[in-house]
Amino acid sequence: MKVFDNTTKKFLLTSWGSFNQGDTNKAPISQLQDSTSQSNHDILQPLRHWVDSIPVNNRQRSHLLCKLIPAQCPFERDIKLFGKTLFHIPPMCKLNPLYEELVGLRFRALCYLADECGEDVSQYC
């Protein structure tokens, strides 16, 4: 008996889960739509909209945004002891609820500097 075969199957079943096709067909469509519409309330939506609406039309502001918003996650690390990696800390920036908006803002600032101002943006990459 191989332990790997049993643990892998149990892991996949618990992480992905399975649905009986007959169970999903029994629920009325109106109940399914009501349950999904209740989960769509996002309390950070006004803040996300505000970050997306920040204008990028100033050279100094664009430079400031490119300096303040990092190109890659600064928290990702490999913890080493005597040349051997003990463990890896994964990037935690994606846990930030405004991550996508901030990356988009930095990209718009880089595009403004490169396209409109004609500057070399390789220092920010």
List the helices and strands and how they pair.
Layout lengths: L2 H14 L4 H6 L2 H10 L6 H8 L6 H10 L8 E5 L2 E6 L9 H18 L9
Antiparallel strand pairs: 1-2
Helix pairs in contact: 5-6
Task: Provide an overview of this structure.
The structure is a single chain. The protein is flat. The protein has 6 helices and 2 strands, in the order αααααββα. Helix 5 packs across helix 6. It has helices at residues 3-16, 21-26, 29-38, 45-52, 59-68, 99-116, and strands spanning 77-81, 84-89. With 125 residues, the chain is mainly alpha-helical. It has a two-stranded antiparallel ribbon. 53% of the residues lie in helices and 9% in strands.
Overall mean pLDDT stands at 76
Largest sheet: number of strands, sense, barrel closure? 2 strands, antiparallel
Q: How would you classify the helix and strand content by structural class?
A: mainly alpha
The proportion of residues forming helix, as a percent range, comes to 40-55%
Q: Which descriptors apply to this entry?
A:
125 residues, two-stranded antiparallel ribbon, 6 helices
Structure described in brief:
The protein has 125 residues and is mainly α. 53% of the residues lie in helices and 9% in strands.
